[in-house]
Amino acid sequence: MTDSRAPIAGTPSTAEKVVRHAAVDRLFHWISAVCVLILLATAFLPILGLEFSWVGIHWVTGLVLIAVVLFHIVRSLAPRRFMAMWIGAADFRDAAAVVRATLRRDGSVEPKAGKYSVAQKLMHHAFALVVLTALATGGAMLARIDTPWWKRNPYLLGDSTWGIIYVLHGLAALSLITMIMLHVYFALRPEKWLFLRAMLRGWITRREFVEHHDPQRWQVDR
Ligand code: HEM
Ligand code: HEM
Q: How confident is the prediction along the chain (222 residues), in pLDDT tens digits per residue?
């Protein structure tokens, strides 16, 4: 009789997997991604001529995104998690080494990253800045619509302040379109599939870990 616990050929056994994203973090990524796509669709489709009552869907989705982002921020304050995304001196050395390896082509090897590469950290921080700007300005704009909790009050802030809030909200939304195109393009490139799998199923293989990561800089729990 065959042992049902025996590893299937080509599938790493549990001992060979390195957890990259816990289920709750993957859920956060996909919920926030769907929210951002709904927010962009409800914002821009009416401008492109597809008319529907978008305001309700837009602000309710915005509130869901605010809630999940707050959850994510609180969760990321644990010291080890926080430092995984921190850009420190080692990241500047990495960036310089990548430039050297690219320009010289003399066989200098690219350095192994911690949990996230400099590029991934920069992408995260750009998303964080832009999404937080959209959420803060959108949150303020809630004062201008009727909700179950309050009546609209367009005079809460002065005209020029509202002007700045609207410009920032629009700029954040436009930047997000470009950033998501870049982000999805890189996520779908074959050499980045390990990260796509990690965002879908949670893990990378131990071989991928050894090839791409420095165990001193990303200390995983066994
Ligand atoms: C001040 C705000 C933020 C802070 C301090 C923060 C912090 C962090 C940290 C420390 C990690 C690494 C967690 C780990 O791998 O153990 C992380 C990952 C991540 N962050 Fe943020 N973040 C912020 C805002 C955002 C925003 C606005 C988004 C949404 C678009 C976002 C999306 C993500 C995603 C998708 C990951 C990877 C999934 C994971 O947690 O493993 N972050 N963040
Ligand atoms: C819908 C298509 C999307 C795909 C296929 C996708 C895929 C991925 C993948 C593969 C990762 C890498 C995780 C890792 O480092 O292991 C990631 C991380 C991340 N995603 Fe997405 N994502 C999508 C949409 C979005 C959207 C709409 C946002 C926010 C507006 C977002 C924000 C982030 C952030 C902040 C990170 C962490 C930084 C990074 O690792 O690059 N993603 N995503």
A: 334 344 444 454 545 899 999 999 999 999 999 999 999 999 999 999 999 999 999 999 999 999 999 999 999 999 999 999 999 999 999 899 888 888 876 666 778 999 999 999 999 999 999 999 999 999 999 999 999 999 999 999 999 999 999 999 999 999 999 999 999 999 999 999 999 999 999 999 999 999 999 999 999 876
Sorted by where each begins, the domain ranges of the chain are 19-212
Distances in Å between the alpha carbon of 91 and those of 66, 111, 173?
30, 10, 29
Give this prediction's pTM: 0.91
Place of tokens 């590893």: 7
Residue nearest atom 39 of ligand 2, based on CA coordinates: 120
Closest Cα to atom 37, ligand 2: which residue? Answer: 124
Candidates 142, 137, 124; CA nearest to 72 is 124
Class of 19-212 per CATH? mainly alpha
> Which residues contact ligand 2 via a Cβ below 6 A?
20, 29, 32-33, 36-37, 116, 120, 123-124, 127, 131, 176, 180, 183-184, 187, 195-196, 198-199
